[in-house]
Write a structure and sequence with these properties.
The protein has helices at residues 14-42, 71-88, 113-127, 158-177, 195-198, 215-220, 224-243; strands at residues 49-54, 92-95, 132-139, 150-153, 188-191, 204-211. The chain is an alpha/beta fold and 245 residues long. The chain has 2 domains: 8-46; 47-243, 3-Layer(aba) Sandwich (Aminopeptidase). The longest helix is centred in the N-terminal third of the chain and has 29 residues, at 14-42.
Length: 245
């Protein structure tokens, strides 16, 4: 006679089944999260890049007086302070320049030194696929009474306008209200056909951080704390803009 087949019945406790199922699900979630992190590290599209463009530099001092202060130096100082602020938030920061240099040698186009410098800045921005970019400048005027931080966006750029308005609101709060304690001053949002705004493919603004020709703002542009507050306000404006997407 052949052997009879035997049927084994395994009784599992219901609580143990639930526990086992929970463990399996948790293992799956952990594995998924690990794979997601790895893919983010190696996927350049997920790089959280912001480009900072301190205007002028090198032979091009921008506005100002060599016996006093020059725009190029203020632009770089504020730009480096903004970089520190953004690094703390976990962004990857690309600077068009981190020293007192002009950038015309990085351009291959046949044009004036000034145009080649601008072309190099445009290329750095476009080649790094940033979330946003900020070009830092200092203002001047024949009217010594002119003052205030101005934020420019390209005409008809809705995203540029949103970013500019977010930074302006932050400047009003952190620079004018809290730091200078002067509620009569407000940052102004304007549209302008600047090269760096027109020729770039990404959302960006140009920030004029003060008037070097205004006696009071000239002093502020030499003040470390003021420049730190401006950098902090720009960062907070960028964060608000990105969080509202």
């Amino acid at each position: 006679m052949g052997k009879k087949s035997r049927i084994y019945v395994i009784k599992l406790d219901r609580k143990k089944l639930i526990l086992l199922g929970t463990i399996i699900v948790l293992i799956g979630i952990i594995a998924f999260l690990k794979s997601s992190r790895v893919s983010k590290i190696f996927n350049p599209k997920d790089r959280q890049i912001i480009v900072i463009d301190p205007g002028h530099g090198g032979i091009d001092g921008g506005t100002g007086d060599r016996n006093d202060i020059l725009e190029k130096d203020i632009n770089l100082d504020v730009g480096l302070k903004l970089k520190k602020e953004l690094l703390v938030e976990g962004f990857e920061v690309i600077m068009t320049r981190e020293k007192d240099v002009s950038l015309e040698e990085l351009s291959s186009i046949k044009a004036s030194r000034y145009r080649r410098d601008l072309d190099a800045r445009k290329s750095i921005i476009n080649e790094n696929d940033p979330l946003v970019f900020v070009s830092i400048h200092v203002n001047s005027s024949k009217k010594s009474s002119a003052r205030g931080i101005k934020i420019y966006h390209f005409p008809n750029s809705m995203e540029g306008q949103r970013l500019a308005e977010s930074i302006a609101k932050s400047v009003d709060i952190h620079v004018y209200d809290k730091f200078l304690k002067d509620t009569s001053l407000r940052a102004e949002v304007l549209s302008e056909n600047f090269y760096v705004l027109r020729e770039t493919k990404y959302t960006g603004v140009l920030v004029e951080v003060g008037f070097i020709t205004n006696l009071e703002e000239n002093k502020l542009l030499k003040d470390r704390k003021y420049k730190e507050k401006v950098a902090f306000a720009i960062k907070k404006g960028i964060l608000e803009y990105l969080s509202s997407d």
